[in-house]
Amino acid sequence: MLRFIHSGDLHLGKRFGNLPEDLGGRLREARHGVIDRLAAAARAQGAGTILLAGDSFDTETPAPEIRRQALAAMAQQAPLRWVILPGNHDSLQASQLWAALRAEAPANVVLATEPQPLALAEDAVLLPAPCTTRRAGRDLTEWMDGAATPEGTLRLGLAHGPVSSFSEDAVAAEVIAPDRARRAGLDYLALGDWHGAIAVDPRTHYAGTPEPDRFKHDAPGRALLVAIAGAGAPAEVTPVGTGLFAWRTLPLHLLPGEDGAAALAPLLPGPAARRQSLIRIAASGRTGLAAAAALEAAVAEAAPEFALLELVRDALVCDCEAEDLDLIDRAGALREAAEALRAESLDEGRSQAERAVARAALQRLFSYARQVAA
Question: Which of 241, 275, 308 is the last residue of a domain?
């Protein structure tokens, strides 16, 4: 029985420049720490090898400390073996990176930089398809079809890129044949690029990222434990948890008259999970200005307990009644501004986008007026 961990898309050194600096630092450290968590999962499951299917580094020029610390962490996990495949973010075009990795890699780190058979065990051969450039313009796994291996040997493929539309960059110029495992007689094809775990077929899997880095996939960080009894036997694929942070988008649909703050409370995770949670509240539906302001206040009140808690209200329509205007001001410049914005938000002669801008401005004015009144 061959057991190994299939992972990839670690994106070590990712900057997270759109997030607060201290949170970005925590997320970068979590990405480095996933090396130890992958090793722990391998040992717990009796796996001796960890396959990294590309994009181990976020850029082709990671800082020397990112590279050296990653290799040092892998070295500390010997005798576990790490197999690193170049991906589109850290392709072979980054010649300085791969030259440095060749010079510095410890004995238990294997660089899969050539499209040629690589022995994993006496009865298992790995067929890697390293990314030559960020956009190779062709299916780099095609060579696997004709690759000769001893009879009765397990044939494993390792590649990085899109199958059909499964591309992180939403570009499918270099599509991997969805039936590559069948064409090449592979017992398992380990893929990277898509950050969510997907089974293309029973022998072809994307592992997803072991540490999430965005809201797009709304799934916990995982790797895959793969167990194969022998050549031709079905692959047993089991997800194992590896993520430290949770990125989640929580929908909140409001009806007119509904208390937004009260509806928010049961959506949020418990106190123990909040520091490691990045939560986006996706508000939709229809509500009044006062209810929308109460929802914003509730989010702001809870936010310090979370790694990140933000409200997205693009799909939330706020109705403004005459009594809402009285809460802003009964006369004067603020009242005139509020009336003008309300008129624009209801003007069917304006575009939908213009009316939405007017509604958002009116909501901000309402929130400001209530803060001043408080």
Answer: 241
pLDDT tens figures, 288-329 = 888 888 898 899 999 999 999 999 988 887 776 666 666 666
Number of separate domains in the chain: 2
Residue 166 has pLDDT above 60, yes or no: no
CA 75 to chain centre: 26
How many other β-carbons are positioned within 10 Å of the β-carbon of residue 82? Answer: 28
Whether 210 and 303 map to the same domain: the answer is no
CA 177 to chain CA mean position, Å: 24
Residue 183, C-beta contacts closer than 8 angstroms, at least 6 positions apart: 144, 145, 177
- Beta-bridged to residue 179, according to DSSP, are none
Q: Identify the domain containing residue 257 by its residue range.
A: 246-373
pLDDT at 174: 65
* CB-count burial class (<10 Å; 0-12, 13-18, 19+) for 10: buried
Span of 201-205, 348-352, 359-363 with lowest mean pLDDT = 359-363
Report DSSP state, residue 303: G
Find the CATH number of the domain harbouring 206. Answer: 3.60.21.10
Within this chain, do residues 26 and 60 fall inside the same structural domain, yes or no? yes
Count other C-beta atoms under 10 Å from residue 149's C-beta.
17
